[in-house]
Amino acid sequence: MANKDTIFSAPIDKIGDFTFDERVAEVFPDMIQRSVPGYSNIISAIGMLAERFAKPHSHVYDLGCSLGAATLSMRRHIQQEGCKIIAVDNSAAMVERCKLHINAYRSDTPVEVVEADIRHIDIDNASVVVLNFTLQFLSPEDRLVLLQKIHDGLRPGGILIVSEKYVFDDEQAHELLIDLHHDFKRANGYSELEISQKRSAIENVMRPDSIESHRTRFSDVGFATSEVWFQCFNFGSMFAIK
């Protein structure tokens, strides 16, 4: 059973920026399930998409892999010979636990877990690339550079899957979706204090984009098509195909 997330349950005098440290890694499965609507559906469908798009003797990348949920989902589904999954995260605490999770399950598809900055990873011979709630933590100027590198490293017909929190231009719709997200967190047992302190901690390190901004960037770097394939409140996932 996952450890319960109580990181923001007590009043904090000075709230610092949110980091994926040892404390977060320890409670991450509980935190993500109770904070991100539709997370389980996204993880399951990433595996299905990988099964469809993974090519023999190609690389599959999970960039910002955290504890390896998307990696494990893809490894369960990929049937192609010679595929290798490369899972990357810059948090030592996440990488350590990710390796334990990966090693707990046997599979014909090898996984390499790498502790590194995803901006410095070479993308080569890729058929599938996943950014699962990762891009929003990069500076806006780094996002286009990374997406260009991913596009250039994908085989023709390869897929990029990008899950994110979204912002919306219409103020009324934007506020309603934020309120619904907070209702979701309350329904999952988070207190008003926890919701408020977590929001304060994360607002300086996570800067979400609109769906339209994502579409524009995908087009700018050369993807042939892109679409939202899942959305729940202000969270969702898109694909872009080369």
Automatic annotation (TrEMBL):
What processes in GO biological process is this protein linked to? tRNA wobble uridine modification
EC category:
transferase
Gene Ontology MF term list: carboxyl- or carbamoyltransferase activity; S-adenosyl-L-methionine binding
- Residues that, per the record, bind S-adenosyl-L-methionine: 39, 64-66, 89-90, 117-118, 132, 199
Q: What organism is the protein native to? A: Vibrio gelatinilyticus
Q: Which SUPFAM superfamilies match?
A: S-adenosyl-L-methionine-dependent methyltransferases (SSF53335)
Protein name from the UniProt record: Carboxy-S-adenosyl-L-methionine synthase
Q: What is its EC number?
A: 2.1.3.-
So what does this thing catalyse? prephenate + S-adenosyl-L-methionine = carboxy-S-adenosyl-L-methionine + 3-phenylpyruvate + H2O
Q: Which InterPro entries match?
A: CmoA, Methyltransf_25, SAM-dependent_MTases_sf
Could you tell me what this protein does?
Answer: Catalyzes the conversion of S-adenosyl-L-methionine (SAM) to carboxy-S-adenosyl-L-methionine (Cx-SAM).
Pfam families attached to this UniProt entry: Methyltransf_25
Q: Which residues form the Methyltransferase domain?
A: 60-158
Q: Describe its partners and assembly state.
A: Homodimer.
Residue ranges the record marks as coiled coil:
none
Q: Which positions, given as ranges, span the membrane?
A: none
Q: Which domain of life is it from?
A: Bacteria
Family in the record: Belongs to the class I-like SAM-binding methyltransferase superfamily. Cx-SAM synthase family.
List the keywords (alphabetical): S-adenosyl-L-methionine, Transferase
